[in-house]
Amino acid sequence: MWQNPGVYPGDQNQGYPQGGYPQGGYPQGGYPPQGGYPQQGGYPQQGGYPPGGYPQPQYPSAPQPGFQPGYGGYGEQPGYGGPTESVGEDGEVKGFDFNEQSIRRSFIRKVYSILMCQLMVTMGFIALFIFHQPTKMWVHRNPGMFWVAFAVTFVTLIVMACCGDVRRKAPMNFIFLGIFTLAQSFLLGVASSVYDVDAVLMAVGITAAVCLALTLFALQTKWDFTMMGGVLLCCTVVLLVFGLIAIFMRGNNIVTLVYASLGALLFSFYLVYDTQLMMGGKHKYSISPEEYIFAALNLYLDIVNIFLYILTIIGASRN
């Protein structure tokens, strides 16, 4: 027999309190009455417990891998940022401005590198045709080469302008751009060979100064020229019609000067327009970073046309 009913044998300091269980059973009051627990109100109404839903879970103090603090929660909830943004299929960043600006800067460097290579090749052809007398005489005795180069230029230009896969996929885009540049440089060399050397050099210097000034203007101006595409197209059609009329008035230097001046002015606007399309950013329209060949082609054609019109102005003024 136990000497103390409230304590197990051999354990005087632990176990239930001395004196046994409390009177009336334990716990006092017995089990809850029939009808469930809690006694008042029963279980909560339909809609969950508590009525407003469970509180949002507290996120850990350290962000989980793949998330950035401060831009929303897990996935899209407030508290932690979502996964790092990636580059889309069209080559443009679908997220932070820093990534967009870094890709745009790389795109601009690529475009101007290609453009400088094109201009160097063109200047080499022009120098060959105006300084090397045998080459100048050979091209004058073979006028058919001019039309062959013109056909190659026209075909490659149409292909690159109309076929997106050709101008986007390497090395096909570089091959077509190289063929176009060689053919166009040959045409410019032939056109320059009929002018004096000092007139050609003067036209090159004026073109370089005008293009540099217009590029700097396009980079810092607050005016958005990318919305003027329709106006420039209408002006181009008018200039084309004017040029067809000027063909039949070839001996009139005044008409030639007016036509060349309008052409130089129009393609100066085109240079600003294409530069802002390439820059993107604050402008309404921009060229995709995948279109670096197309952007370089646009700028090259603008500079070439400005050079030809300025050369025409100098030649007409001397005559």
Describe the structure.
59% of the residues lie in helices and 0% in strands. Helix 1 (97-131) runs parallel beside helix 9, helix 6 (197-220) packs parallel to helix 8 (253-279) and helix 7 runs antiparallel to helix 8 (253-279). With 319 residues, it is mainly α. It has a domain at 97-318. It is globular and about 50 Å long.
The percentage of residues in β strands lies in under 5%
Low-confidence stretches: 6-15, 66-98
Q: What's the story with the biggest beta sheet?
A: none
Arithmetic mean pLDDT: 77
Order of helices and strands: HHHHHHHHH
Distance between the termini: 140 Å
Secondary structure tally, helices: 9
Shape: globular
Rounded Rg: 40 Å
Helix content: 55-70%
Task: Indicate the structural class.
Answer: mainly alpha
Q: How many DSSP-defined strands? A: 0
Key features of this structure:
single chain; 9 helices; mainly alpha; globular; 319 residues
